[in-house]
Amino acid sequence: MNKRIKLTIACLLLIGTFSSICPEDFFNITTKAYAAAATYSLANNGELKSLEIKSTENKSLDLYDYYNGQKKNLTDEKEYYITLDEKSNGLKVLAECEGDDYVVKVFESDKKTAIAHEVGEEMSFLKGMSAIYIRTYISKEAFERAKDKEDISNCVKTYKINVNKAEIKDTNTNEVNTNELNTNTGSISVDFNKDAITNQWVNKWQYNDASGNPLKNVWLYDKNSGKNYYLQADGAMATGWLKNNRKWYYLGSDGVMKTGWILDGSKYYYLYNDGTMAYNTVIDGFKVGNDGAWIN
């Protein structure tokens, strides 16, 4: 029997079993599970009261506390994470701000001279990790003044949306043993992959996801260590210099993403808090060149 058909039958049996045992409680559980709020009713002036991020294929993207973390609703927090399917061309932001004359603008960079996108405007992304910034302004005129003064950071609120464009696996292809479902007694025993090692390091170099598959081409935040890692196309943890989405990162011999000043060979480099290498700028009074190395 086709795997998808098996899974569909199993799910219907599960729902029927729970419904027959406690229909009212089951209904309450399911409505709560799928009522993901896209609004923030306690928003003050200048804060987002609604936010929805969609792919260019018009699929809504969930907000998370990190790429492989927990789902989040819109709150007064100002940083979120989303995963965009690598097959998608890009995304668009749909947002509303509390306050009568306030306006919302979207940027692909946190530079003070970044070009603004309108709400609902589609933006293209390359594979890998990047970010967009949603800024609110007290009025259209306030935004124009900030733009004219080449400081679009002069706004009311700034929201950072971290974007990881990567492969999204189909989790609906697991085998289901329908013989383990007994709707007469109410007993249910479904074992999708009991031998899989999930949500943990398999060895020093590989990390398995919730389905027991190795993470690939994706950043990983390990909550146990509080560190960031990058898993490559073969699933192996990256070390040394890494170019991802046209930006350079440095990961130690233990795979941990580095920040701050580092010494590589005989040259010093500076890595921002998000791990990206600084170049053609001045950090702490020290100038770094186009290659990121400190010019002494």
From TrEMBL:
It comes from the Bacteria. Keywords: Repeat, Signal. Residues 1-22 form the signal peptide. The keyword Signal applies. The keyword Signal applies. Gene3D superfamilies: Cholin Binding (2.10.270.10). Cell wall-binding repeats lie at residues 238-257, 258-277. This is Uncharacterized protein.
